[in-house]
Each structure stands twice: as C-alpha cells, then as structure tokens.
Amino acid sequence: MAARWPAAAAILIVALQLMPVHRSNPPATADLSAPPEISSMLRDACYDCHSNHTRWPWYSAIAPVSWIVYRDVAEGRRRLNFSDWDAYASDPGTARRKLTQIADLVIAGKMAPWYYRALHPRARLDPAQRRIIARWAATQAQGAGR
Ligand code: HEC
Fold it and tell me: pLDDT digits over 18-33, tens only?
C-alpha cells in the first residue's frame, strides 16, 4: 500500500498541470511616466505584479506554483497597475491614494513582498532607493488634483 504513494503523487502532479492558468499580458497603453531612475526601480521591483509587462518565470508554468504566481499577478494588477496609470491620473483622488500607498508600503519595506525579493535580487531595494521612491511618490501625490 505504502509503495503506491509515490505513484499516486506523480499522477496527481501531472493531473494538476492540466488545469489551465492564463498567463497573459494585456496590452499596455497608458503606462506611468516617471524619471528614468524611478521607472527603472519600479520596473525591476514592482512591474512583474503591478503592470501588464509581467516577465512570467519558467516555474510559473508549473502547478501548483503557477496558481500562486497567477494569484499574485491578478491581485497585484487589480490593486495597482502601472499600465493603467492614465486612468488613475484622470481621477486625482485615485492617483493621490495610489501614490500615497506606494510611498507608505515602500518605505515600510512591505513591497515588493519578501518571497519575491528572495527570488529576484534586482527587487531588493536598499534604504536609499526606498527613500527615493517614497519621496517621488509623496511629491507626485501632493501635485495630484490640487
Ligand atoms: C510578487 C508580486 C508583487 C510585487 C513584485 C509587488 N507587489 Fe505590491 N502587491 C502585491 C499584491 C498581491 C498586493 C495585494 C495584497 C497585499 O496588499 O498584500 C499588493 C499591494 C500593493 C499595494 C496596495 C494597493 C491597494 O490598493 O491596497 C501597493 C501600493 C503596492 N502593492 C505597491 C508595490 C510596489 C511599489 C512594488 C515595488 C516596489 C510592489 N508593490 C511589488 C504583489 C506584489
């Protein structure tokens, strides 16, 4: 009986691969425009989950990791999508709220999430870089809708 477990596990893992996960990148028409230093940090540290320019890693094709990555990207894009920036900017309250959240979470070291930083060295922003992003976001927030 016990000898059957590895076979059962192997079949289960193969079966999991049959469940479709849609790893899509919708068209990006309205990306945030920021000074190059800022955009390059945001691209390295945030765009995989918060834009339509996700670089889907190879392991994101393999269940169950694919479900976790998919959930992060779907939830990340829903909350904050740098590729929808035009829509945010057309509503000053929204732009101000998003920018304030960016400043707060980046300075607190809560974004990008720790497990993402563990896998992506370029997403590990040092304290000086975090301050630069937070200062930029806070300044932009003040400018929005006044
Ligand atoms: C691995 C995917 C991932 C990366 C990379 C990532 N985030 Fe997030 N982010 C999420 C998820 C998922 C949520 C929503 C759930 C939560 O708050 O934990 C979120 C929430 C947020 C929110 C809150 C939005 C709201 O409406 O509540 C902000 C702001 C944010 N992230 C900014 C950033 C910034 C700035 C970076 C880069 C420095 C970044 N994130 C990197 C996945 C990510």
Answer: 887 878 888 777 788 8
